[in-house]
Design brief:
- The structure is a homodimer.
- In chain A, α7 links the parallel β7 and β8.
- In chain A, α2 packs across α9, α4 crosses α5 and α4 crosses α8.
- Chain A contains twelve helices and 15 strands.
- The longest helix of chain A is centred in the last third of the chain and has 27 residues.
- Chain A is an alpha/beta fold.
- Chain A has two domains: 149 residues, Aspartate Aminotransferase, domain 1, CATH 3.90.1150.10; 219 residues, Aspartate Aminotransferase, domain 2.
- In chain A, the strands form four sheets. Chain A has a seven-stranded mixed sheet with strand order 2-10-9-8-7-3-4, with helices on both faces. A four-stranded antiparallel sheet of chain A has the order 11-12-15-14.
- At the A-B interface, α2, α4, α5, α8 and α9 of A face α2, α4, α5, α8 and α9 of B.
Chain lengths: 395, 395
């Protein structure tokens, strides 16, 4: 039969994730991949999973395998409420909801709010997974300027003065793809701006626990609680394969998001939520997180050092105090996409930065480099190979 | 701030699931609930979960906790391919995809295919969770006639002659809510009709393994493979809290559904998929399923017997050979919703059948009764209480 006519109009905006396609290529042996965006398996607390599983079976028995509330498993919500309180975010357990990864809440927010043509304001560049979540609901994107201190507040102000915006989407801390962090001063300005314009901010914060230097900065949620949906995940500090995301949102939005999620997947795995509850309740996160940081910190440093050493003149790396990525910008006229084949030939993969922009003209000279999946020595070799590839196409 | 203006147009069609609201009421102690729709926790293979978990940790190590393919965890897809082959459904492992519960694929199909106003043809009554999945995409519903042998083929033929239908949605075996099964003769007719009209059928099959009497009937998928998306789940034969659904679909549709799912939740829990793979690969399903059937079969029989014994004249129960529900129809003029308060007063809860119809005028005299959550003696008492309530409002 002819299946083409089955497609809804919204499929026009849905494309295979370009990075996903790149990742397939770089799974080839012999290539060092700086293209990925996933945590190192060495960061998972494998030594205690068995113990957590035993505890869950003993404590919750068959309840851990039964259908559960769409809102989330209460013991986990209680633990996350405590975790959020430590970050200055006040949310009682019944005000913290669980989703299937943070992707689950990005989808739910888009489904709840976006009618075709509604405008979403984004950092340029932005997180690609958010675009995958938003695209099917056919929004228009308004791109806003960033620099090394994160989103430029004047750009937000201008956007809100000239457009009717459904919501703003930001990754303010150790952003994917740039690794940049919005400064405290700018967070205060942004909180003031969104409150004055009465606009909703979706603050996506998967990485802030992965800080390798400098002082923590408060979430924007703490500065404008009624105007922010704060999203985070246990994927980077526990295990991504368990698919545990969570959010704190104003009551009206939260109740609607539950209704949305009910139609999408009923609820998130009860067993996995129970494992996560035990991970937090048993204090394992606080002992394990320093181990994750000790794993990644030298990798970030190795990459920053190698970039300083090997990159040709005119190439710069954005400052970053944490997360999983570094962001390299080449000189004007440099085309990262043209480098790609040569880099693969030299045995190293990266993601051309242009894929993270909604405007196809932007970011042509940028590259995203991941440092969580390779050790320091390998990272140094990879950066040298990358630099060699750059030299060879610049000849 | 004012949140109301944030809502997308599609939220007009999204309401709190009526049954969910009913279930909240009946959680009160002292009420025997026939209103639920969930498996008994006694049906979960709790005695082997620890063993499965140990095996997964040993075999897959950190891979069971890492991000994985949107399509699903390959070892599970291999096992499901074998399971489907036993049902006469030919799908190689890479043609079987995993979703977060069967709800996940219902959402994905709707998102992929429904533009506002597109027509979906449904049995009247139909599964409420499917409506929760479809509603946000703003379809129009065309209801089709059912009788004790399932969907009436002439009603399907008429529907396809008079409407341009995006897809047909059926639960052909032990349907929720009616417990009815489409006969083999009708399956053949329906396969012929959908092939002749070149229309897609979504065949939802969560219950067929729970057969207490009679011979298995083949899935419609086996009769019209190119025209059917076949959906099933491990929620009724393993554990619902693990949220493992799966489907076999024509390649074009399958590839699009993967793209859709990528934006919704990236992938389903790797760990839970690995547990399910071990459950199937270790042969546990084939030893455990008879235990589930031995648990439910006498419960169904106890309910059927009690209904025969206690129900007043004019009330009938639809024949059913399996699943989780029985469907009672009262005489013309009987209003099940009016019985509800009296039944609760008498200490028994059920779901008025009208909630399972898209046309609010239909099914006023019907009731859905669940028999998986109470033992035989309790079921007998519950049905007697229900009958007493009916007598008292009929006076």
């Amino acid at each position: 039969m002819d299946y083409q006519h089955l497609l809804a109009d919204r499929t026009n905006l849905m494309q295979a994730n370009a990075i996903r396609e790149i990742l397939k290529v770089v799974a080839n042996p012999g290539i060092i991949s700086l293209a990925g965006g996933i945590p190192s398996p060495d960061s998972f607390p494998m030594d205690i999973i068995q113990e957590l599983s035993d505890k869950v079976l003993k404590k919750y028995k068959s309840n851990a395998f039964q259908y559960d509330l769409t809102e989330g498993f209460l013991p986990l919500r209680e633990q996350l409420s405590i975790l959020l309180e430590q970050k200055g975010i006040h949310a009682l357990p019944d005000a913290v909801n669980i989703t299937s990864g943070s992707q689950g809440v990005l989808d739910a927010i888009a489904k709840l709010t976006i009618s075709k043509g509604d405008k979403i304001a984004l950092e340029a560049p932005t997180y690609l997974g958010a675009l995958s979540a938003f695209n099917p609901y056919e929004p228009d994107y308004i791109r806003m300027d960033m620099d090394d201190e994160g989103l430029v507040p004047d750009s937000l102000e201008h956007t809100l003065q000239t457009h009717d915006i459904k919501f703003i989407y930001l990754v303010p801390t150790f952003q994917n793809p740039t690794g940049r962090t919005l400064t405290l001063e700018r967070r205060r300005k942004i909180a003031e701006i969104i409150q004055r314009h009465n606009v909703l901010l979706v603050e996506d914060d998967p990485y802030s626990a992965l800080r390798y230097k400098g002082d923590p900065v408060p979430a924007i949620k703490t500065l404008a609680p009624d105007h922010v949906v704060y999203i985070s995940t246990l994927s980077k500090v526990f295990a991504p394969g368990l698919r545990i995301g969570f959010y704190a949102a104003p009551k009206f939005i939260r109740e609607w998001l539950v209704l949305v999620k009910q139609g999408v997947d009923l609820h998130t795995s009860t067993f996995n939520q129970a494992l996560a509850a035990e991970y937090l309740e048993g204090g394992y996160l606080s002992t394990h997180l320093p181990r994750i940081i000790d794993l990644y910190n030298p990798r970030q440093k190795a990459m920053q050092d190698a970039l300083n050493r090997f990159l040709p003149k005119g190439f710069t790396c954005a400052p970053s105090d944490g997360g999983m990525f570094l962001w390299v910008t080449g000189p004007k006229g440099f085309k990262a996409l043209s480098l790609y084949d040569k880099a693969i030939e030299n045995g190293v993969a990266f993601v051309p930065g242009q894929f993270f922009y909604t405007n196809p003209e932007e970011g042509l000279e940028t590259m995203r480099l991941n440092y969580t999946m390779a050790d320091e020595a390998t990272i140094e070799i990879a950066v040298e190979k990358l630099a060699t590839a750059i030299h060879s196409i610049q000849k």
